[in-house]
Structures are given as C-alpha cells and as structure tokens.
Amino acid sequence: MEKCISDLSQALPGRVFQPEAKEYKESLSSYFSAQESTIKPACIVCPQITADVVTIVSHLVRANQLQGIGSCKFAIRSGGHACFAGSANTLNGITIDLRGINLIKLSEDLSQVSIGTGASWGEVYRTLDPLGLAIPGGRQSQVGVGGLTLGGGLSHFSGYAGLVCDAVTEYEVVLASGNTVLATENDPDYGDLFRALRGGSNNFGIVTRFTFSTFPQGRLWGGTLIYPLETKDQQLQAFYKYCSSPACDPNVSLIHSFGMSAEKGSGFVNSIVHIKPESEPTAIKPFTSLRPTYLNTLRELSLTELTTEQDSFNENGLCQIMIATTSYIDLPLLYHTYDLWHNSCESVKNYAGIVWSMSFQLISPTVIAHSPFLQDVIPTLSTHSESIVVAQLTGTWKNPNDTAALEAIAIKLIDDIEIATQKNGLETGYLYLNYAHAGQNVFGEGERKAWLRKMSRKYDPEGIFQYCVPGGFKLF
Length: 476
Prior knowledge:
The structure is a single chain. The chain contains 17 helices and 19 strands. It is an alpha+beta fold. Helix 1 packs antiparallel against helix 4 (about 50-65) and helix 12 (about 330-350) runs antiparallel to helix 15.
C-alpha cells in the first residue's frame, strides 16, 4: 500500500492526501453519514479530470496485479450520500473522491448537458434553472450525480421522463484496462455497457461524465405538509387511492411519510411537487384538504429552491440508515407496514436523538412506460399491471455505539414487511438500489444478474471492480 500511495503521489502531485492533510479531513467530514466519515482510508485521491482517473486506475490495477487481486482496496466516491459504512469509503485503503470532476457543459443547441460525475444536483440545477431547462435528478441539492444516476434514480420528473438513468444518452467510463470509452445506447461496440451501467452501480468501471437530454422547465409548485399521526386512516386511504388511480397525474411527485422524532414528536409528512406552477392540482387535493395541518410550505418556487428546502430535513454527520423494499399496491399491506413501523418505534424511542420514519413512493405504470430501465429490470411486469410502492425506512441517531442495535431493528422491520408481501403475492422482484442497505440483494438471482455478470467478465476480466472495490453492491 505504501508503494502504491508513493507512486500515485509522484504521478499526481497535489492530488493525493494523507491523514494529516486538511483536504483529507475535509473530504471525510463531507460524507452524509457518520458511519462513512469515521472510516479512515490510508489516503484520499482527488482527481480533477478524466486523465487523472485513468492514472489512478492504472496504478491501482497494477498494484493489485503485482500483489494479488484484492490486496489493494479502493473506494469510489461521488457525493458521498450513501449511508452504510464502506459504501464509498474504505478502511486503510485508497478512496477516490470524484467531487473535483464537476464540470457542467451544455451543447450549443441546449438539448444536451454534459455533467462531471462529482457534481452535486444543486450545482446542476443552479446551472439549468436560469436557462429554463431541467433534467431528471436528485431531490436534495447535496446528492451527487454519479451515485444517484448509476443506481437508477427516482426524481420529481419520473412520471414525465422515467428514472434519472433513462435520461442519460452517453457515459464516459474509465475501464480497468485504463481505456476511456464513450458508451451510447446504439453503439455497436459499447451498447451493452451502456445498458449495464443503467442501475449497475460501480461494477464496470469509473464513470467520469454523463450526458443527459434536457427539457424545458420553468417554476414548480410544491413543498411540504405535516399533520398529526391521528390522521392515519385518511392518509393511508388517500395514498392508496392516489396510487390506484388509472389517471395518475404524471406531473405530480409525492413522497408520503410517517415518522417519529425524539425531539419533535410524531406525524405524517407529504412532500408534494407539481412540475408545472399550478396551485393545488386536482390529483393532490385529497392531501391538501386533510385537517389538521401543522405545516404547509406549498408555493411556487424553482427547482433549486425546492431541493435546498429538502436539504433542511436531512442533517449531515449523524449516524444514518436507509433500507427499502418494494411491493405492488395493496391497502391492507400499507396498514400492516404502518403497524410494523409503529410497533418498532417502541424499540427505538429511547435512543439518543432518534428519528425513525417510513416513506412510500409510487412507481406507477406511467413511470414504467417512460423507463426502459424499469422495463428491463422488473421481472413481474408480465403478470402485474398495478402500481409499485417503494417503502423506505430511514433512521438517524447520535451515538455510534447504538448503530448495530438500530440497524438490526431496521433490517427486521423490512424483513417482516417482505414476509407479508410474499405471503400475499405482492412481490415485484425489484429493489430500488439507491435506498438499499448493505447486504440487500439488489440484482436478484435471475436473468439480469447473470447478464450483468457476463458484462463484468467482458469489461473487467480480472474482477478489479468486484474484488478491489468492496463498496456498493457486487455481482459476485
């Protein structure tokens, strides 16, 4: 490891930082979760251009070839927003912090935008908003472009444009061979790599740049509504009716949540966005009409303003967990999920600083119709036509010593939901990667995983990104 760090330092002067450097400390402190920020790599490398990444990959591959594949571990970090320990950082290894590769460049006709993998979605929106343009992207400004896009990526525009990865027209990728390739959908050479990168995480190389198709977008109408927990029946029934409507408004984005905070109490939260500046569209009136309402921030605003507001609900530097499952829409299952969450609150309520919430998000037939990615990865579409619900548990707490116990409670809660899902024949066969926790099987065991493994062997025959990059979700 010492020789590899020394060689990298010589090849990339001013880009390699060890624990005593302020750049090293800044990088660690900028992770979203405490689990990630407390991991101490041997060094952090901060490339600024794609050529830097080629140099880094070439050195790391050579070191692993000389010392044995897997001997020199490294991590790939874009925004650093994944929660679980080791997702984008590595103990005593080399962490590649890609945030310096953040150039945002529009084509002359403004129909395409090229974005460096280390850019944040806030940077993207601040560039596109003044031009009246948008692309599907993160719903919090601090989330990185790379991680969200390579996981699939739900957005406020999913009903209109599918997932974030569906808007990508080109990937620039540094392969384990050291070659930099451009992958497009219909490319005779790399069309299969393009398909594999949609939702394929960090299994095939380091993506340094994405090109997206833009679309016209003005101001939005949206914000947050908070209600007491006693509105449970109206809330769950309204959400079920919204999901079940054959005329589900593709312009509406809804995150339907219920949560408990040790410091602020319990309640329901509806985060609502209409991508046109239309005050109270018909589709969301069942939620805006619910009473009592503790808070209502619904208003006309820009995408930049909206995502910045969402940041205020998520504090950096705390111990965090995200874990998820999916099911086809079913009202009894929504109630059962609520009851399981409510019962789990008794187990967690005495942990210092606990915030414990469950969110439901809709993947409607309209979203799927706009998403070649989802059509490719959901194996049950031929036998189901109803909407899919992503159920996401999130938790934050203050004491790192509580992490193991709270993660175990969270995993059991999701396991219990999945038992009920399977019992009632509501499983989808798809898991949304961006909310998944370590150990969840995001790729399944069917044809898609077999094909992704084939692509891994084709583009990374030595398994560099399988055995030297422990973070993310592996294929082998």
